[in-house]
Amino acid sequence: MTDVAGTHATAPVADDAKWQRVLRSFAENKQAVFGLALLVVLLLAALLAPVIAPQNPYDLAQISFLDAMMRPGEASPGGILHVLGTDSQGRDLLSAILYGLRISIVVSASATLIALVIGLVLGLAAGYFGGRFDAFLMRLVDVQISIPGLLIALLLLVAMGPGVGKLVIAMVAIYWAYFARIVRGVALVERKKEYVEAAICLALPRWRIVLRHLLVNCLPPVMVVGTVLLARAVLLEASLSYLGLGVPVTQPSLGLLIANGFGYLMSGEYWVSFFPGVALVMLIFGVNLVGDHLRDVLNPRLQR
Amino acid sequence: MLSSPRSATDLTSGEAARAAAGLRLVAPDAAGPVIELRGLTRVFRKPLDFAARAANLLGADIREEVVRAVDGVDLSVQPGEVVGLAGESGCGKSTLGRMVAGILSPSAGDIYFEGRRVAELKGQARRDYALAVQMIFQDPYTSLNPRMRIRDIVGEAPLVHGLTSRAELKAYVREMLSRVRMDPQYDTRYPHQFSGGQRQRIGIARALAVKPKFIVCDEAVAALDVSIQAQILNLFMELREQLSLTYLFISHDLGVINHLADRVVIMYLGRVVEEAETDELFARPNHPYTTALLDEIPRIETRRRVYQGIKGEIPSPLNPPSGCYFHPRCPHAMPVCREVAPPLKTVAPGHRSACHLNDRPA
User: Measured between CB atoms, does A207 come within 8 Å of chain B?
Assistant: First the structure.
């Protein structure tokens, strides 16, 4: 009876066992490792674009119309080897893809992140305080989610005009609702748990209960939804750019590059659309693989 | 394994308690009850939603659902006393405990803490009350924040409320852990690394860390193995002696209540039906509901007996019976029981019961 509790029953394991488990489980899954590797390579390529790209596609002085529509593997008279060919304006396609990857990633990642923060704040408030605010917010979310995202973005972009910043705003306007709904649901469940009652009983300040107790316990599902929505955001950005309402023509993202080459697809000049398309697919595929596995790892019900 | 927790000095009689409560009306008195409840009531409503209101416009008769989870409970607890609160699940004992602990606010009635009306407390006094009354929860798996280390779980509140400094926090937390007989070196671990009994100890350490006077134990051992239950119950009793704590011990397990409590309160559908000192109640139960509950305690000596169960189901609290709530299940029900709710009446010194049978001429 007087022995110290803890010397029996479950032997406590090391502190950071949880993250070790996440990492180990990640390493065991070949798909997840492949997805992560793919993402890391693409991110590095995008980050190092100015260093590794054969030319700067934004610098008009480096681009010559004479180099237009070169086949993959041809070298221009200027001496640059166009591994993936050139487009109709003589831009080196590999360089354009590397720079386009940057824009695609920056736009979709920042849009997802901003939407996540907004959704987190609103969802937490709705879940914790409930009442009219909750009812109002959730009906707004219902309406928002029932309208196709592409349509909302198109309307907003038509109203605001094109531009990278406005593209981000339009995408945030779509995705905050998904985050808000998920966070609100999780917050409702967590709020009823006894550790929150204990925090109330200990007379902790309200903001502290919401931030230190509720917020951290709502994060895992948000991370999972975040990766799924990130993949969708990449696709949406590409679609909008393809439709001509996304990024400006002078700074093409992957979607705009695909759109640029679309006209030549049927005439055998496939590469202008094909290679940006491959880059886009790899990016989305990588994000999805990592996101899928993250979901498995963070879901307590699927834990081994 | 279990030592006898009750000592003679702790047996403050219910009669003396009420006498003290009467005096206490004049001035806050240190010798008065720690916690006194007067007509404490909690009503849960489910307001009609838009669809239901629309249906009502069209002639449907959908009423708001109202549950009186706790209905006019009077109770006083003397310093150092252990009051056991028993009753079937759904009788409102947890709701009562949560109101006392300040987690739920009462719909009507008052809580007095050391003679002062809690509803009137502001600022520092309010905080002192909140910290002085702590709660131990039923489920040790959801009552600890899974993302916090033990030292943060135990140390957060004392740090926020200035009971310790950041420099002394580590020693403070370790002292709390040793007090609940846990290895203080575990303070950097997370809750999932512990067993149910250990987690419950951590929950107790968290409550002790704000130096409470009164602890509400809400089915605090119900989720534990029987052997662990005994350890935790003994811990409660040790702490009571070391720190002169007062307990409101909520349990559906009359065996546990008999073992721990000085006084027992029996609740049925949100109302108190009987209240007496533990020995008196177990020896001479007055209310038919109490008698029925006591009959169902499994005992080794009564191995061959057939358990009857209390006949019928506990009625829906949405639509409680008229008169005495227990009359549909009561073997002694009389016509008056259907009409009039019996008030609590003193049937012996310190022994109150709410039953019309006591009104019959002897």
Answer: no
The helix or strand, by DSSP H or E, that contains position B205, with its residue range, turns out to be: helix B196-208
* Rounded CA separation B288/B106 (Å): 29
All residues of chain A having their beta carbon less than 8 Å from the beta carbon of residue B142 are 193-195
- The pLDDT tens digits of the residues spanning B65-102 come to 888 899 999 999 999 999 999 988 878 899 999 999 99
CATH annotation of A2-302? 1.10.3720.10
Spell out the domain ranges in chain A.
2-302
- A300 and B CB contact within 8 Å: no
Phi, psi of B113 (to 5 degrees): -115, 120
Full-model pTM: 0.78
| Residue A203 sits at the chain B interface (C-beta within 8 Å) | yes
Complex confidence, ipTM: 0.81
Instruction: Identify the CATH assignment for B13-147+190-287 out of 3.40.50.300, 3.40.190.10, 1.10.510.10, 3.30.360.10.
Output: 3.40.50.300
Q: What angle do CA B89, B90, B94 make, to 5 degrees?
A: 85
Distance from CA of A233 to the nearest CA of B (A): 30
- CB contacts < 8 Å between A and B, how many? 103
H-run or E-run covering A141: helix A131-146
pLDDT given for residue B234 in this prediction: 93
Q: If pLDDT is split at 50, 70 and 90, which confidence band does A18 have? A: low
Q: If pLDDT is split at 50, 70 and 90, which confidence band does B28 have?
A: very low
Among B138, B154, B189, B193, pick the best mutation site for testing chain A contact (most A Cβ within 10 A): B193
